[in-house]
């Protein structure tokens, strides 16, 4: 039996196990040479030929018995569809999952084209509002949620229950006119009963849609989360009565096993 196997099964051995962490291995000159020629770290990890070569470097240099395949913990969020990038003098930066969803919706449906005023319903933790604030330069944005969330530059924050008429009145008073965009990421806290969760989230979507119908200008746009379930067809049917253009979209960054989709509506009838 090889020494490494003896150690793994906890047999007595005269050898002292040595663990060389990758953080130390990355200072090997042979690794640094590969890294210099491959600046994109994610692509480096995905390159099976180079990963194999890097894995074997400590064995070749020090005569170790075994090695763990070269990779990085950042491959987990990458594999889940989260955007991973490296910023100079900072390190790895993970894009917010929810920002990614709105960004994908915007890239496909151009929802922020000519948008100056926007309302974000169910805004916590603030992901969608952050994206809106980046894209709307000289406009007006209001974000509301029943939970407190971080302050965001150029966004007016309102803490309250959107389904309460008093909260809706505060939103109308803030703008005092029709708006260009209403987005809603509102969803019920999941109970484990997928049909019930779909129904309750559907009710939130319908409430947001009714509000949008009265608050949007003629060319306004409405985007809302909804779940596949018993109320799905009813929501889509109602949307088609209110808007001229209605689409259903599941962003690539949304989990494949999730019943989550988004309804994208444009131009009031």
Provide a compact summary of the structure.
The chain is of the alpha/beta class. It is built from eleven helices and nine strands.
Largest sheet: 7 strands, mixed
Distance between the termini: 77 Å
Rg of Cα set:
25 Å
Helical residues, percent:
40-55%
**Subunit arrangement of the protein:** single chain
Number of domains: 2
Global structural class: alpha/beta
**Which strands sit side by side, in order, in the main sheet?**
5-4-3-6-7-9-8
Commentary on this structure:
It is a single chain. The model has no long low-confidence stretch (mean pLDDT 87). It is built from eleven helices and nine strands. It is α/β, with parallel strands linked by helices and 269 residues long. Strands 5-4-3-6-7-9-8 form a seven-stranded mixed β-sheet, with helices on both faces. The chain has two domains: 3-94, no CATH class; 97-268, Rossmann fold (3-Layer(aba) Sandwich), CATH 3.40.50.150. It has helices at 3-8, 22-25, 29-37, 41-46, 48-62, 75-79, 97-109, 127-135, 165-175, 194-215, 232-242, and strands at 84-87, 91-94, 117-121, 140-145, 155-159, 179-184, 216-227, 243-249, 260-268. The longest helix is centred in the C-terminal third of the chain and has 22 residues, at 194-215. Helix content is 41%, strand content 22%.
